[in-house]
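step=encode ok
step=design start
structure_in=
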C-alpha cells in the first residue's frame, strides 16, 4: 500500500441522479419481494406510492472500486468490508439528485502479518441547498497491507452486544441470486460474482456483500424499531465479522434501547456471528 497516495486519493465530487427503478433494484438486492404478495415489502418495490429504505444511502453515489487503482498498490483481492457507519439527517425521496463527496479518514494498523483497516467517508447532500442528507463511513480490512502505521482519524469503537436474551429474533433465508442482484446497485467487486476470484481470496464460492447483509438487518430494524417511519431512523452501524454466502439463513437478534436498538446477526446453519456490535439509533 502506498500510504500517502491512499490518504490523499483525489476523489471527485459527483452529482448523482437516481430513479424509482434504482430504489426498487436496491430493495430487491436486500431480499425484499421474496414473497411478491408481501404488502410491506411492496412499499419499496412498487412505483405506486414508493418509499425509500434509509439504508439505500449506503450505496447511493458509490465511489466505485477505487481501491483497485494500481497506483495505490493495495492487495485488493484480499480486502474485506470490516465496519460500516451510517447517519441519516433526512429521508430520501423516491427519486432525485444528490451531491456525493468523499475523503479518506484514516488507517488503523493491525500489524504487518494482520493487515490494516482503511476508513473513508461519503457525504450525501442536497446539490441545491448544500444541506446534509446522510453520512457514511466505510471501514475496509486490507488483509495484505499491514505494517503501514496508524494515520488520520478513525470512528469510535463499537460496543459488544448485550449478554442478555434478545427482545426480538428474526430469521431470513437469503436468495441464492442476491449477490448478483445487489452488485447492480454499484459495488462490482468480482469477489461477489466470479468463482475464480472468490477462490483466489480463499472462498469456495462468491460471498455476499457485507452491505447486503447489513441492508437486510437495517430493513428489519427499520420495520420493527422505527415502525417503518423514515423520519425516525437516525442511523446504523456494525462490524462485519464473518462472510455470508447466498443461500444462508441469517438471524437478527435485537435488543431494544431507549434511543433505538443493539443487534447482532448470525448465520444459523454454521452458528457463526456475521454482523457484530450492531447499533441502530432513532431520531427524537
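sequence_out=
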Amino acid at each position: 500500500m502506498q500510504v500517502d497516495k491512499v490518504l490523499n486519493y483525489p476523489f471527485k465530487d459527483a452529482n448523482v441522479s437516481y430513479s424509482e427503478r434504482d430504489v426498487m433494484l436496491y430493495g430487491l438486492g436486500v431480499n425484499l419481494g421474496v414473497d411478491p404478495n408481501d404488502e410491506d415489502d411492496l412499499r419499496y418495490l412498487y412505483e405506486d406510492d414508493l418509499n425509500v429504505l434509509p439504508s439505500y444511502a449506503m450505496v447511493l453515489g458509490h465511489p466505485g472500486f477505487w481501491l483497485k487503482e494500481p497506483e495505490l498498490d493495495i492487495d485488493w483481492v484480499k480486502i474485506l468490508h470490516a465496519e460500516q457507519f451510517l447517519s441519516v439527517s433526512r429521508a430520501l425521496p423516491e427519486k432525485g439528485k444528490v451531491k456525493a463527496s468523499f475523503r479518506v479518514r484514516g488507517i488503523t494498523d493491525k500489524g504487518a502479518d494482520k493487515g490494516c483497516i482503511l476508513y473513508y467517508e461519503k457525504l450525501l447532500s442536497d446539490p441545491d441547498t448544500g444541506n446534509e442528507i446522510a453520512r457514511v463511513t466505510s471501514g475496509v480490512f486490507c488483509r495484505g497491507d499491514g505494517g503501514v502505521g496508524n494515520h488520520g482519524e478513525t470512528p469510535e469503537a463499537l460496543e459488544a452486544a448485550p449478554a442478555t436474551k434478545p427482545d426480538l429474533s428474526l430469521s431470513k433465508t437469503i436468495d441464492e441470486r442476491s449477490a448478483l442482484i445487489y452488485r447492480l446497485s454499484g459495488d462490482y467487486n468480482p469477489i461477489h460474482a466470479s468463482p475464480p476470484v472468490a477462490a483466489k481470496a480463499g472462498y469456495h464460492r462468491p460471498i455476499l456483500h457485507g452491505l447486503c447483509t447489513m441492508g437486510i438487518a437495517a430493513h428489519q430494524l427499520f420495520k420493527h424499531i422505527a415502525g417503518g417511519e423514515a423520519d425516525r431512523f437516525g442511523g446504523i452501524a456494525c462490524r462485519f465479522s464473518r462472510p455470508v454466502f447466498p443461500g444462508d439463513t441469517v438471524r437478527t437478534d435485537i435488543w431494544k434501547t431507549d434511543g433505538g436498538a443493539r443487534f447482532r446477526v448470525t448465520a444459523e446453519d454454521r452458528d457463526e456471528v456475521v454482523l457484530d456490535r450492531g447499533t441502530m439509533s432513532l431520531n427524537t
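step=design ok
step=annotate ok -> The longest strand covers residues 96-111.
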